[in-house]
Amino acid sequence: MSNLRGSSLRRDAAFTLIELLVVIIILAILAAVVIPRVIGRTEDARFAKATADISTIDGVLEHYKLDTGSYPSTDEGLQALVTNSANNERWNGPYIKNQVPMDPWGNPYLYRMPGENGLDYDIYSAGPDKQPGTQDDIGNWNLQQ
Fold first, then answer.
1. Three-state SS for 138?
2. Distances (CA, A) of 118 to 35, 109, 121, 122, 139
């Protein structure tokens, strides 16, 4: 009689192949639903970071102009916020510590003065396609969109 109980307990304690397959299928369905949502959030986070960086650089450029009397030229670029390469006597930086940040796609932020989008200057990221002048560019002219 103890032999019957032992085999009965072992059978109750183990999972059958069907039960394991059901669990695997449920996990696969959950993964199929959750993973695309998480991946989509990554790109949203990159756009949010680019927008925040551009907004920050925009404010730093205003501070630079208050000190020096003008915005950096296109040739000086955003590097003028880190080093006084133009030897401007009124430069009171560095305005950004260490270096100008890279955009979330690993490229430098672009700068041109005067701006081509109705502003004094343009600060922008070429976006995920890394090609300036395309639909996915993120710039100070479209921060409120």
1. strand
2. 41, 19, 8, 9, 12
Side chain identity at residue 54, one-letter code: I
Could you tell me the CA-to-CA distances from 145 to 43, 65, 138 in Å, in that order?
Answer: 17, 26, 10
Per-residue pLDDT for 128 more than 70?
A: yes
Over residues 33-87, the pLDDT tens digits come to 777 776 767 778 888 899 999 999 999 999 999 999 999 999 999 999 999 888 8
The domain locations on the chain are 2-142
The residue count of the chain comes to 145
Question: Is domain 2-142 given the CATH code 2.60.40.10 in the classification?
Answer: no
pTM (2 decimals)?
Answer: 0.69
